[in-house]
Amino acid sequence: MHEVPYQVNKKELVIRIAELVKEKRIEGISDIRDESDRQGVRVVIEIKKDFQADVVLNQLYKYTALQTSFGMNMLAINHGKPMMMTLKDIISAFIEFREEVIRRRTIYKLGKARDRAHVLVGLGIAVENLDPVIELIRTAPSPTEAKEALLSRSWPAHDIEPLVELIAEPDHKVENGTYRLSEDQAKAILDLKLQRLTGLERDKIHEELMALGEDIKEFLSVLASREKLYGIMKDELIEVKTEYAKPRLTTIEDIEYDTDVESLIQREEMVVTVTEAGYIKRVPLNAYKAQKRGGKGKSGMTTKEEDFVTRLFVASTHTPVLFFSSKGLVYKMKVYKLPLGSPTSKGKPFVNLLPLEENENITTIMKLPENEEECKNLSIMFATSFGNVRRNSLMDFVNVQSNGKIAMKLDEGDKLVNVALCTEDNDVMLAAKSGKCIRFPVTDVRVFVGRNSTGVRGIKLSGKDEVISMSMLKHISANADERDEYLRISAAMKRTAQEDGTDIYTSPEQTGLLNLLTAEKFKEMQEREEFILTVTVTGYGKRSSSYEYRVTGRGGQGIANMEMSPRNKEVISSFPIENNNQIMMVTDGGKLIRMPVEDIRIAGRKTQGVILFRTADDERVVSVTWLNADEEDVEDIEDNEGTELLGEGVVETEDVSDISEPETMPEE
């Protein structure tokens, strides 16, 4: 800091900053030093690691005198009346004043020029009629009689006539080639010195009269054209600016502090947690530690009796979030506005944050891109528990008022399962709790113009089955034979690597299975391959290649997503995942576990999976989400096989460490 505002004491400013840091109103400052000397002001503020300098600077502007405003009394007398004036009013009044000044100045100069030209015209008439004028003056008995004699005669204009027309005097014109003198002209002729009668002086009178004629013409044009008058005003203001202007040291603003509130918010990754009863909170991501597969987890939220966590996701504090309600409305709020809590706190109910009506609750939550420009090329896909889907332009939901707006019309008993961003290069995957799923192109669903519709059928459900998740996958153009060959080659490459016990890469050519595919095509499919994680309510799960899920038309009954059995009961979630991701699973008892995805085995589509989360007999997994792994998490994964369960109304489970993982079913 090399300068402080006017009338601000530097020493008191430094003391105030230190007090705010001590009170924790300003966070992120590790040290402050006053290094000012005779060379100038220098105050050094050191920022803590992982804190953003811009955020700290904005906090200093907000809470200290580092940025100071000065009030201005805008009471002024305008046209003789006192009035409160805005900045625009003052500028308008000044322009009006300058316009009047230039107009009156021009009128004054025009009058002076005409007076001088009037005298010169009289002198010109006298020069043109020199001999008669001299004779008249010589024979006159007195100056008064000489003056009256000059006024009584009409004098021939000769060469002066064009000059008389040039100065455009309204009361003195040439008539029938003659001109009558005025008293001022007669007096000027009588006062004329003999030296002005020489040829050189006569030429000077003529030249001066011509110049005055041009000036009068210019003055008249200024008075007749407002545009020309404003041009003069602009030139004069630029001249003043060029000669006297200095760089402005202050800025003029509407209010005392006009910085966006978001600039005061530290950008940080948050875990947003939502419960079945409608409680929500955000917790810093670094508050959770990763565990190995099969761990028992730790408390993720303290819930009241019969309440449990149903949704959690990871987002930046600056990420906008859309909240879709059971009545088909959508609300918008940024993550930093959500209540901040600890891993075991309850959070706050939605009814205290959003204008929800009676019996209205939030069913689906979706993150938006922080940059609104990205929304122009994106669509938003809705999926309901009855299997309906609908696609809209994302721009339809960028501007959401505080009281919400209509998002989708729902049938009685139906609810929103998920809302996701998509492009025409994506496929939609709907997964049902019965273990069925369907995959179809996004383009199978047209873009709806309106928002008050139920959409179209995405999957045909049977009985009491319902959709539990919707995912967006990369579209694949390979046919069934190419996909089957790719899966065979990929499995052979993995078996070879496992048998050798090394990480040496096996090329597709070495497998000897290449037939329909080329090495280049195989590499392309490998780069576009995704893996679908499917998890059951009993804590079992598996990963399967996206190539095992064929693309069909929407509205069908679908294919098997997972082999179902009394052990697996129902599918709770199914979505694409990457090998370097981690997942979080939450139970209805408030337990939470975070584990790396690489610990979860890759199996065929129609298999039962392996145990991921050991749950009690009366406990169910209610939410699964993925998140990016930090570098520290890779090195600091907890074993944590303990049985501690935090949260109200949760009973400690029996030891299940001796239970072995079941064998997986053969692939379909």
Summarize the SSE layout with pairings.
Elements: H1 10-22, E1 29-34, E2 43-47, H2 53-63, E3 75-78, E4 81-84, H3 87-128, H4 130-139, H5 143-152, E5 154-156, H6 161-167, E6 178-180, H7 183-190, H8 199-224, H9 226-244, E7 269-275, E8 279-284, E9 298-299, E10 309-316, E11 320-325, E12 329-334, E13 348-349, E14 362-367, E15 379-384, E16 388-393, E17 405-406, E18 416-422, E19 426-432, E20 436-441, E21 456-457, E22 467-474, H10 480-500, H11 508-511, H12 519-528, E23 531-536, E24 540-545, E25 559-560, E26 571-577, E27 581-587, E28 591-596, E29 610-611, E30 621-628, H13 631-635
Antiparallel strand pairs: 1-2, 3-4, 5-6, 7-8, 7-10, 8-13, 9-28, 11-12, 11-14, 12-17, 15-16, 15-18, 16-21, 19-20, 19-22, 20-25, 23-24, 23-26, 24-29, 27-28, 27-30
Helix pairs in contact: 3-7, 3-8, 3-9, 4-5, 5-7, 8-9
How is this structure best described in words?
With 668 residues, the chain is of the alpha+beta class. It has three domains: 1-70, Gyrase A, domain 2; 88-241, Topoisomerase, domain 3; 269-476 and 513-635, Neuraminidase, CATH 2.120.10.90. 28% of the residues lie in helices and 23% in strands. The protein has 13 helices and 30 strands. The strands form nine sheets. Strands 10-7-8-13 form a four-stranded antiparallel β-sheet, with no helix packed on it. It has a four-stranded antiparallel β-sheet with strand order 9-28-27-30, with no helix packed on it. The chain has a four-stranded antiparallel β-sheet with strand order 14-11-12-17, with no helix packed on it. Helix 5 (143-152) crosses helix 7. The longest helix has 42 residues, at 87-128. It is elongated.
